[in-house]
Every structure is written in structure tokens, then in C-alpha cells.
């Protein structure tokens, strides 16, 4: 082998060594400081504890007005993205998890009822029909971003007396669609098709797979750490 051949072999080895050091620095040395849940929802906080043992919560201050021209799936991802981007600007070098949930009946988006009468109108419209609960996810490790919309179909069946009794509890007034499946509102639901936790507000199965794909170990016993 001549001097030229030896030079190129040595040069290639240096490049490979430098590349390996760069990958090590990115994935091993540059540890992300923490996990941030960009949500004020106590339900999402409790659900995330099933996946990650240590995280902090931030309540995003964003415009939650629906964006014109978007379909429901795009809309819910857009709202989750606003929350995630808001948190990412304030928490550098951190994992960010954001979510937003909408209740969709046909082509109508159902938000939180304004008053008991509005709750009665919403629940009456949902009664005896299938509707969809959509949760948009936005996950970032500080460099990459993953988004997804999880959809669960829900069917409700109840009589007028049951509906009025539920409204009297006051529970519907702070719930999108006028009910909370994880509380007494679950008594009005006769079946679902899809992820139950998505209806509560955080699709755990989808979130777990997104985090795993991005390199995070999950489940509380593992603690917060990134995969090698």
C-alpha cells in the first residue's frame, strides 16, 4: 500500500471517529433536563403518571380559538401544537408533551357548556348517537417533533331524568361535550370504540409508542431516562 492509500485510510478512520463522538455527544452527553407536560388538566397529569414517574406541569397561555379552514383532526393537532410550542420556548433542553381534546358530533365541534341549559342541549344532541373524541398530541425532545391525532368513537344512551340528574351535579360545565367519562358522566356512556384514555384526555398507548420511537424509556419504575 502506498502513502496515498495509507493517508485515505487514516483520514476515513478520523472521520468515523469524529462521527461516533458526535453521535455520543448528542444522545449521551446532551441529556435532556426534564419532561414538561404543557397542560393544566389534572386528568392528564394523573394519566401521565402511569407512563413517566417524574415530570413538571405548565399551564400554557395560548389562544384556543379554532383556526378557520381546518378539519377537526387538523384543528386538534393545531391546538396541541400551540401549547407545545409555548412550553418549548420557555423550557429549553427538555421533553415537551402537549395535548388538546375535542368532542366532534358530525361536523360540529363541542366545547364546554356555557350553562346548564347549554349542557342539556349538548347531551340531548349526543344521546342515542355515535360521536368522536379527538386528542391531538405534540411531543418534542428539543430537536424533533412528533404529532398525532387519536380518535375514539363514543355512544351514549340515557333518559331525560338521568340527564337532568347528571347536569345537577355540575360536572358537565367544565367538560368538553358536556360530560366526563371518568366520572359520573361515564354512567351515560353505553359503549366506546377505541382508546378509553383518549376520551379522558391523553391516549396513553399512542403516547407511549411516540416516546419509545423518540428514544425515551417509559413506565414509572424505569424513571426518566433516555434510551442508549
UniProtKB/TrEMBL annotation:
One of its GO terms (cellular component) is cytoplasm. Pfam families: Maf. Its cofactor is a divalent metal cation. One of its GO terms (biological process) is nucleotide metabolic process. Keywords: Cytoplasm, Hydrolase, Nucleotide metabolism. It comes from the Bacteria. Its EC number is 3.6.1.9. It catalyses: dTTP + H2O = dTMP + diphosphate + H(+); UTP + H2O = UMP + diphosphate + H(+). Gene3D superfamilies: 3.90.950.10. The active site is at 100 (proton acceptor). It is an enzyme of class 3 (hydrolase). It is found in: Cytoplasm. The record marks 43, 101, 182 as: Important for substrate specificity. Belongs to the Maf family. YhdE subfamily. Nucleoside triphosphate pyrophosphatase that hydrolyzes dTTP and UTP. May have a dual role in cell division arrest and in preventing the incorporation of modified nucleotides into cellular nucleic acids. This is dTTP/UTP pyrophosphatase. It comes from Gehongia tenuis. The gene is maf.
